[in-house]
Amino acid sequence: MENIDLSMIKSPADIRQMYEKQLKDLAVAMRKALLEKLSAHGGHVGPNLGMIEAIIALHYVFNTPEDKIVFDVSHQTYPHKMLTGRMQAFTDPAHYDDVTGYTNPQESDYDLFSLGHTSSAVSLASGLAKARDLKGSKENVIAVIGDGSLSGGVAFEGLDYGATLGTNFIVIVNDNDMSIAENHGGIYADLRLLRNTNGTADNNLFRAMGFAYRYVHYGNDIPSLINMFRSIKDINYPVVVHINTMKGMGLPVAEADKEKFHFSAPFDLKTGEPYSSSDTPEGYDDLFANQVLARMKEVPELVIINAGTPGAIGFSPERRKEAGSQFVDVGIAEQQAVAMASGLAKGGARPIVALASTFLQRAYDQFSQDIALNHQPATFVVFYGSIFGINDETHLGFFDLGLLSNIPDLLVLTPTCREEFLAMLRWSEDQRRKPVVIRVPGGAVRSDSKITILDDYSCPSYEIVRKGLRIALIGVGTFLPVMQQAAENLSMKGFDPMVINPREVSTLDTACLDSIKDFDLVITAEDGIIDGGFGQKIASYFGDTAVNVINLGLPKEFLNRYSAIELQRECNLNPDGIADIVMSALK
Amino acid sequence: MENIDLSMIKSPADIRQMYEKQLKDLAVAMRKALLEKLSAHGGHVGPNLGMIEAIIALHYVFNTPEDKIVFDVSHQTYPHKMLTGRMQAFTDPAHYDDVTGYTNPQESDYDLFSLGHTSSAVSLASGLAKARDLKGSKENVIAVIGDGSLSGGVAFEGLDYGATLGTNFIVIVNDNDMSIAENHGGIYADLRLLRNTNGTADNNLFRAMGFAYRYVHYGNDIPSLINMFRSIKDINYPVVVHINTMKGMGLPVAEADKEKFHFSAPFDLKTGEPYSSSDTPEGYDDLFANQVLARMKEVPELVIINAGTPGAIGFSPERRKEAGSQFVDVGIAEQQAVAMASGLAKGGARPIVALASTFLQRAYDQFSQDIALNHQPATFVVFYGSIFGINDETHLGFFDLGLLSNIPDLLVLTPTCREEFLAMLRWSEDQRRKPVVIRVPGGAVRSDSKITILDDYSCPSYEIVRKGLRIALIGVGTFLPVMQQAAENLSMKGFDPMVINPREVSTLDTACLDSIKDFDLVITAEDGIIDGGFGQKIASYFGDTAVNVINLGLPKEFLNRYSAIELQRECNLNPDGIADIVMSALK
């Protein structure tokens, strides 16, 4: 075995100089470096370990960056980054944070798109292929998509169109028989059949969609991959290359528990145990899962729907087992999750769809048409809709509040603490009147024993949590306690602000608002962008009065890897900032 | 042949009393009545004529409404309405308007959902089936979906999940080898293969997705359909029944020109010619198509993308032929249209995606992630985003303005007239700086020779189209001329209002707004719901000033079959209403 000096690899041209037999040693060296970084730094473990060989083979055979590769969701692109000028970010701990976890055109010309949502790579690549054909150039266009991502509807749309291109179009299906958790969907039986027949089964999803088809059984074997890629390089029609890879390959604990090691915080390479304490405090995901699991036992028609991210909503493998047929993972298919919930509600079941903020936007049309227009009483629990959620530009939780609250008939509740979240959830589990969204507060679980719990959240009823004069501070969800603290600060400076918990953001409590229409100043703070959100409704309502309104929230921007604390400071979303705003407004 | 008295059919129970051989005569009578209504009243011609036999057979065999049928997009449900208590609306001209053009639960318990967007029926039905299984009941659950609708990603998501149900789940694929226009997509080769092999081909999309499969070659033959439906009634696993039907059957002109007769205004039954004058005035669709067709000849990389509704954007079969490979219909697949545009722009082409307002919401995630986050300079031309668009509750154009204008980095232009629309389109065809949405004005084409045309629309620059004092009227798109007229009315009453054309709704022109911050009153009017829209941004901007702001627009509601004139009156969106608002605000 040869020791490959990774630092010598500055671009794919450097590996194309290597003998084919050296590439196995290159993979060994890359895997070793990756394991060291992953264990020390955390990241997407399984997807990257499984794709080292395929990515080496792709860059070895194809003439990147002229030949174009689009990696779906792009959480498998650490090996790609290593080979395309960013090796140091994987070998030198001081530079681990130089790169993002996804492809990023600002980092490299080898990265075509910023991607973090699944299933769009085939569509994006189909556009690149069509552009090539219009311009008359000849490069290869390649989409790399995982089996888990295939369940998203846009992937199907992309394949359906891509099959008709009639020119070079290569789709690599990276099949490791896993999504983030296990796969769900009818297509996976066919993928299994294809794997079990070495790709020879008559019943072939990809051929049925109009593609030529190739199969590589040893998808972690570089010579097999190179032979296949050479055979289809410069092909002049659309082809699917189905490669069978091992998620987590080379890390026994990741091979054994693929779900746990899809993504991991820093961990011990030997044991696989995370370095951080396993006594993590109870999160809203746990609160959610425990309450609905208990309720399920009393209500057989209560059913939880999730779209491929069960861990993010508290449904560990153990809890999924406990829920049995009352837990449904539809695969990465948010449109299905939301439309199915409409059918479930219409059929008399009690569906609760739990989704991350950043992904629910994939089902806007279903929220609008299938749920709201049809008045179906489904419950939607939105996680990570907060600046304290995920801080990658591709996974921001800033947009759902305006998106959902402007759909007619959809009640969007914004609990502020553990007690209110659980009360709203309990109420919505049982109500049969309307579609309800419950936006989980951001950050650590917070308890507030003084919060007023209602029997019915269906009508707007803002709660005055602190009486006051002249100034009203309306704090939505996560930002109610911030407003409360700001009020305390202000009270020490001689002000006496009212603090209001609106409880929801989709309807105005005009009685409450009218009761403060002789106030001087109303400040709103919400955990999302200001544009299209709650505060602007308040500003509009008071537009023809003498009440001054100042809206606080986030700018309409795609922020990337921001610090939440810094962001709070910049946007005056902390108690000091709010107090300053009040004092300067009243000067 | 027996003459069937349609008025005796009050519910499917009445046809279940009939001998099977009478059903053919029933179909004859229903087709005759339908043809009379369609020719006199207009409506979805082809889809309904093709499904008379299948709908008779479904209600004959299945025990509706206990057995549940979900009709995808539901524009093929006139025969269903005839058999389920609403015959008079198809036989008595005085009652033609008693029913909507889509299933509607407010009309009948046989209608499960209000549906008008394609591709969601399988998902909705999967929810009904799961609810049934949770409750332990035993009814059949049936989704009816057309071949055109299969190209929508949510249909695939629904099939992928539905195949795993493990219990009764029946999907009728109504294959008439047409979408609204011709089909586009790789799957259609497989459907053709299945039709040509009487359903016996090995390569079978539905089996590959995990379904059992049946085929009915004579999908307009009632005995064949009844035999098949009887054979799968109460089946205990998921099955696709692929039926080969004739779109427009029984109307020779519709059989011959399926695209023209997908939907038609009233027409002469013999000739197929519409009764209304064929000299319809040039619409924005024509203006759009003509300008881009001319430009295409100069710019080979200019490409128009549409998602299954080419006629709605001015691309008749002749114009599509003229555009050649520079026109792409991706099928009913808005996500693909938008994500592909990102790939096209990245690849150096100049994509223009043209979509109806109501359908673009199916691609929100692609607008946000694939286009805006990636800063790709694609152009989106939005038709029917207006109260003067389509007035069915399922097809409203009220929501796109807020939806798109709150996405970072997306420039949303709102032209007010023919000249401005074409100038903005021309500018965006050539610019390579940012993603641009151009919202086509509502109503008839309006000319305004005084409008100021810019060389560059990339930066906010509100145009003061009428100078004035104290009062500013900001009219967005369609409502600029309304504001201008209101200003004239007000000037006769001694006021002198300024009128502003903001040109866009995604960024504030703060210089312009600051120049009027000593005004008393600002009124905004926009062609969409107020919530989350443009006016609320203005209200927020002036929130801490003495300027009073009143936002005019639509309420956050799903209106149905409204009168645009009435709606303008109710919402003070006409010159008199606006003048009244100003006068009472300044009292």
Relevant terms:
homodimer, 587 residues, alpha/beta, Rossmann fold, 3 domains, 6-stranded parallel beta sheet, 5-stranded parallel beta sheet, 18 strands, 37% helix
How is this structure best described in words?
- Two copies of one chain form a homodimer.
- Chain A is 37% helix and 15% strand.
- Chain A is of the alpha/beta class and 587 residues long.
- The longest helix of chain A is centred in the N-terminal third of the chain and has 19 residues, at 23-41.
- In chain A, the strands form four sheets. Chain A has a six-stranded parallel β-sheet with strand order 9-8-10-11-13-12, sandwiched between helices.
- Chain A has three domains: 6-13 and 20-264, Rossmann fold, CATH 3.40.50; 284-439, 3-Layer(aba) Sandwich (Rossmann fold), CATH 3.40.50.970; 463-585, 3-Layer(aba) Sandwich (Rossmann fold), CATH 3.40.50.920.
- Chains A and B meet through helix 6, helix 7, helix 8, helix 9 and helix 14 of A and helix 6, helix 7, helix 8, helix 9 and helix 14 of B.
Spatial strand sequence of the major β-sheet of chain A: 9-8-10-11-13-12
Largest interface: A-B, 121 and 121 residues
**How many domains is the backbone of chain A divided into?**
3
Number of helices of chain A: 23
Average pLDDT of chain A, rounded to a whole number, is 97
CATH topology of the largest domain in chain A: Rossmann fold
Sheet having the most strands of chain A: 6 strands, parallel
Share of residues in strands of chain A:
15-25%
**Which percent bin holds the helix content of chain A?**
25-40%
CATH arch. level architecture of the largest domain in chain A: 3-Layer(aba) Sandwich
What is the structural class of chain A?
A: alpha/beta
Alpha-carbon distance between the termini of chain A? 75 Å
Number-wise, the strands of chain A total: 18
Rg result of chain A: 26 Å
Relevant CATH superfamily of the largest domain in chain A: Thiamin diphosphate (ThDP)-binding fold, Pyr/PP domains
CATH class of the largest domain in chain A: Alpha Beta
**Oligomeric state of this protein:** homodimer
Low-confidence blocks of residues of chain A: none
Morphology of chain A: globular
